[in-house]
Design a protein that fits this description.
Protocatechuate 3,4-Dioxygenase, subunit A; binds fe (iii) ion; five-stranded mixed β-sheet; alpha/beta; about 290 residues; 2 domains; binds benzoic acid
């Protein structure tokens, strides 16, 4: 290390100490979070030595990200998703026993779902004629395998073209959504069409960043679940369609092996009242009892 390097390192140390010395206030958690954030950001500057132009470009990126946010769109959450940070926060908050169904990110498309009877069709738009028909069924149990009656299974999915109801004027609000309640055997089921993979929004600063990094914006085909039952820890998760070409490179880094389901392709007339061949997905959800979760 030259003398010049040593002086610079000493000044950077003194600068970091001065900033950390100003972190006070009455909230210990805010102090902890701020201290760690400042440490990591200073370490980033020391490691990468950004030029002033690069630093201002970074700040401009954050400003543009903020300007892209509206009541209906949060570009900062998208940035967090695309950097794997949403999945990291999910992981540190929802790590459970190995027998429990793993969680996965909620994403931006959740909306209150219409309550529906088990077996209902949730696909009532043009996708019902176009798409590959499917039955999705399973049981909600605790981690010991005991069925849970009265659990709610909140489902939302995109159609065969990768669109949610809120993105597609051809779909009525509530299409491809449903709130199901399990019976005494813990069972739920519904009929729909197989969703397709779809891109996250790419017309903002985060989309430009993905392109600049040589990344694609695709999420593998999936069905969202939010399952709740009294006395159990709720889980928000996905079911991923086996064989999807983006399973190994999900733009939101939300795939977990246990959540990938291979459907059995069944012929028309093999029950479930589906008038054509259909894909039969079975996905059981195992919830952690609250006394174990604590
Ligand atoms: C989604 O699956 O709905 C989603 C999740 C993260 C980012 C964008 C979309
Ligand atoms: Fe989604």
């Amino acid at each position: 290390m030259t003398d010049e390097d040593r002086v610079r390192e000493d000044r950077l140390d003194a600068l970091l100490s001065a900033v950390l010395g100003q972190v006070g206030g009455s909230d210990p958690r805010l102090r902890e979070l701020t201290t760690s954030l400042v440490r990591h950001l200073h370490a980033f500057v020391r490691e990468t030595r950004p030029t002033e132009d690069e630093w201002l470009t970074g700040i401009d990126f954050l400003v543009r990200t903020g300007h892209t946010c509206t009541d209906l769109r949060n570009e900062f959450i998208l940035l967090s998703d695309m950097l794997g940070l949403t999945s990291a926060v999910d992981e540190v908050n929802h790590a459970g026993p190995a027998e429990a169904t793993p969680s996965s990110v909620e994403g931006p498309f959740h909306a209150p779902a219409p309550p529906r009877e088990n077996g209902a069709w949730i696909a009532a738009g043009p996708e019902r004629r176009r798409g590959q028909l499917m039955v999705v069924r399973g049981r909600v149990t605790d981690t010991g395998g005991t069925p849970i009656e009265g659990a709610t299974v909140d489902i939302w999915q995109a159609d065969d073209a990768g669109h949610y109801d809120s993105q597609d004027p051809a779909q009525r609000p509530g299409n491809l959504r449903g709130l199901f309640t399990t019976g005494a055997d813990g069972a739920y089921w519904f009929r729909s069409v197989v969703p397709s993979s779809y891109p996250v929004p790419t017309d903002g600063p985060v989309g430009r960043l993905l392109r600049a990094l040589g990344r694609h914006p695709m999420r593998p085909a999936h069905i969202h679940y939010r399952v709740e039952a009294p006395g159990h820890r709720p889980v928000t998760t996905h079911v991923f369609v086996a064989g999807d070409e983006y399973l190994d490179s999900d733009a939101a880094f939300a795939v977990k092996e246990e959540l990938i389901v291979t459907p059995v392709i069944r012929r028309e007339g093999e029950s479930y009242g589906v008038d054509g061949p259909f894909a039969d997905f079975v996905f059981d959800v195992r919830l952690v009892p609250l006394e174990v979760a604590r």
